[in-house]
Structures are given as C-alpha cells and as structure tokens.
Design brief:
Layout (H helix, E strand, L loop, with lengths): L1 H54 L11 E18 L6 E10 L2 E2 L6 E3 L4 E2 L3 E15 L3 E10 L4 E4 L3 H10 L4 E2 L8 E4 L7 E4 L4 E4 L2 E4 L2 H10 L2 H30 L8 H13 L7 H16 L4
Parallel strand pairs: 5-7, 8-9, 8-10, 10-11
Antiparallel strand pairs: 1-2, 1-6, 2-3, 2-4, 6-7, 11-12, 12-13
Helix pairs in contact: 4-5, 5-6
C-alpha cells in the first residue's frame, strides 16, 4: 500500500510538473509573439511616418495657390506633430501611433525633416487625413506651409473675406465648410467673437484656446487656425531661421548683380533683414519685421532678385 501511494504521488507530481511546464511554454510563446508583433508595429509606425513625409513632397508646388490632397491609412492612427528649432533650420518631427488589438502602439521612434513645416494640433487622430499647402513669402518665398487635419474634424468658416472663402471653396476639402456647418464643427469666425477660433484679419492675429497667435500673410493665418500654439510658435521660429539664411543668399546675389547695375538698393536691406529675423522669438515679434518686408517687396519690383 505504501509503495502504491508513492507511485500515485509520483504520477500526480509528473502531471502537475507537465502542466506547469506547459503553461510556462505557452506564456513564453505569447510573450515572444507579443514582442515580435510590437517590434514589427514600431517599425511599421516609423516606416509609415517616413512615407507620409515623402507624400508631402508633391504639395510643395511653388505655385501661389493652395493645393490639397488626402492620406488614408489602414487602421486608426495618431499623427503626432513635434517640432524643435535647434541649429540652422530646426526639425519637423512626425511620430505615429496606430491602434492594434484595441491598444495604441507606443514608439519612441521619430522621423524628422529639416525642410518641412507642418501645422496641426499636437496630434491628429483618424484613418483619413487632409493636407493642403500654401507658400509663405516674407518678402521672398521661405517655404511651403502644410496644414494637416483629420477628416473627423470639421471646420466651419463664418463670414471669411471673399478671397479666403473662394480659396477654401476651390480646395474642395471635405472637412471644410463655408455654410450649413455640421454639428460639433470647429467654428472659425472673422466678424464675431467667442468662436472656437476668432480671426481678427485686419489686426493680423487669431485667438484660439484663449491664446493669441499673431500672423503675417494668409499662409500664417491658416497655420494659426489649424495648429495649437506650441506647434505654431515653434514653426514660426523655424521659418524665421530659414529666412535668415535665405536673406544672406539673396544678399550675395544682390552684390553680384549690383555690378551689373541691378540689386544694389537691396544689399543693406537684406543685411538688416537677416538680423531682424534672428530677433524673432515668437509670432508677436513678426510685426517688427513687417515694415522692412513691405519696403523690400516694393524695391524688388524695380530689380527682381526673387
């Protein structure tokens, strides 16, 4: 009897050991599969972010009119818009997080570009995203500005100036409405206050989330409407950094053409503009540049450098 009991205990122990080992192997397998899936998802997020950056290239048209396109992704996606203004041109950074198994992926991989300027909220969420662009000239073309928004966000423009209304209508962008605005749309007002975005067009500033965002030209006005303050201010600083370098290039060109009787009247202006661009710390400082820019635009008509 004692021997049989020992054998029974050994058999039970063997079964228990087998079950424990089986559970361990199963858990380990799930862990490895999850890690591999997570690694692949992180790589996919980074790859998709890079592809989005490439897709933006055709929008940099060089034309003065706005142009639009859309991006459709296979799963719910958050496109994070990050920016830094270090070094000469700073960096436009895109970070993606996609929904997988009802959870958002978490990746620290950022894809950066030194020649792109995207204006949006901190992140845009959805499957379909609209993008339109418009060149920013101040006084020469500095870059094309890109405005990103999710199709889930509806923008309603109320009483916009005629040229703004016509430009937006010509875009035919599905999430922009000029009248009969859908419920819960983001209301952008030009003639009244207390809206989601109040644009004081003549005074050249917008109020969004109780923050003032100054702008120059319609290009930066759109930027103030579609982006949050942190993104906006960082990108404005980056644009001024690029403007600094372009002013030096045009100054060199002016010195060359001055010997041929053209461009000499802009040399000192471009030197001064280079220094003024450097002093712009936020959008509120743009007003200090406006006078110089308008004067240079007039001079450039006499002898075109750009």
């Amino acid at each position: 009897m004692i021997i049989k009991s020992k054998k029974g205990l050994e058999a039970q122990f063997a079964w228990l050991f087998a079950i424990i080992v089986g559970i361990f192997i199963l858990v380990l397998t799930f862990f490895i599969v999850a890690r591999i899936t997570q690694t692949e998802q992180v790589a996919l997020d980074a790859s998709t972010a890079k592809e989005i950056g490439v897709l933006l290239n055709p929008l940099e048209t060089g034309f003065e009119t706005a142009k639009t396109t859309s991006i459709i992704l296979p799963s719910e996606t958050r496109i994070y818009n990050k920016c830094n203004n270090e070094e000469y041109f700073g960096r436009q950074i895109i970070k993606l997080s996609q929904k997988s198994f009802n959870k958002w992926t978490d990746t620290n991989l950022d894809v950066g570009f030194s020649n792109k300027y995207i204006f949006s909220d901190e992140f845009e969420e959805g499957k379909k995203f609209f993008i339109f662009s418009k060149p920013f000239e101040f006084p020469f073309k500095i870059s094309d500005l890109i405005y990103l928004s999710s199709s889930d966000k509806k923008y309603c423009f109320d009483d916009a100036p005629k040229e703004i209304s016509e430009e937006l209508e010509n875009l035919n962008q599905e999430n922009i409405f000029m009248e009969e605005c859908p419920e819960n749309s983001i209301k952008v007002c030009f003639t009244e206050t207390g809206c989601d975005v109040d644009v004081l067009y003549e005074q050249k500033y917008a109020i969004k989330n109780s923050e003032r965002l100054d702008f120059e030209t319609d290009s930066l006005m759109y930027a103030a409407i579609f982006s949050d303050s942190e993104v906006y201010e960082c990108q404005v600083k980056r644009l001024m950094q690029r403007g600094e370098q372009l002013a030096l290039l045009y100054k060199d060109k002016a010195e060359i053409t001055a010997g041929k009787g053209c461009g000499g009247n802009l040399i000192s202006d471009l030197t001064f503009l280079n220094g003024v661009f450097d002093e712009v710390k936020d959008s509120g400082d743009l007003r200090f540049v406006e006078g110089s820019v308008n004067d240079m635009q007039s001079k450039n008509k006499l002898c075109r450098l750009w």
